[in-house]
What we know:
Layout: H1 14-40, H2 45-58, E1 63-67, E2 77-81, H3 83-107, H4 110-129, H5 131-149, H6 155-170, H7 178-207, H8 222-241, H9 250-258, H10 263-275
Antiparallel strand pairs: 1-2
Helix pairs in contact: 1-2, 1-3, 1-4, 2-3, 3-4, 3-5, 5-6, 6-7, 7-8
Amino acid sequence: MFGYITINKSEMKFKEFDIYHAYYCGLCQSLLSRFGPMGQVTLSYDMTFAAILLSALYEPETVTKKCVCVAHPFERHEYIKNEYIDYIADMNVMLTLYKCEDDWNDEKKFFKACFGCGLRKLSCKKRKVYRKKENSIKDTLAKISKLEKEECRDIDLISGLFGDIMSKVLVYKEDEWSDELGKLGYYLGKFIYILDAYDDVEKDIKKGRYNPLKEKIGNDGFDDEIKFVLSMMMSECCKQFEMLPIIDNVDILRNILYSGVWGRYETVRKKREEKA
């Protein structure tokens, strides 16, 4: 995943950060127990948000444990375990697997091919549980790959496809909240795809890789235009979020959606202004 959906630590209380960190470590531990160290490498902030969101909405039976890990070898720290964290771990590995396959098909990255092959073997049994969802995600990724090869410049179209994928990830089950979760995931996915394109556009131009923003970067007001589009996506995302009956950890989730998601945008824009 991309790592754009993260916290604004400076505006977060110490207790809230500890809870966020416990979910982050919980996802890490779930990846380790279900897929081994190779699965653990796929850990991302984006999917940590998804784990907190689903846990806060459905309020499952949750266990808090302590462990020592490679990242924190000298002290025991808390991590959270529940069924939604395990589900997100499965989705995280599935998305990473197909991203590796896409990198191999597009750029012949040997390491990604080997890594993807390893993830496929490790996740074979788990993916059978989500076969219908996996097939739908795989078909959508194939459409994205096709559009990228055709050098599609319609950022709304191609980001919308990635939005469809995130929508499927957030809809854990069909119930009274699936519509709001689906729309939230859709706009969040569009936000992630557009921000990733904005982040990488100069690097992609230098390396001759696809990027839907290639022809826009030289335009006057390019940064403001992207900020406007991203703001619309996040506005719709927050609108759907506020319709969910979430009480637990709502301040953490709002910190991410209203503030944390803009961290990378501001960093990229600042670098461009300094170069100019």
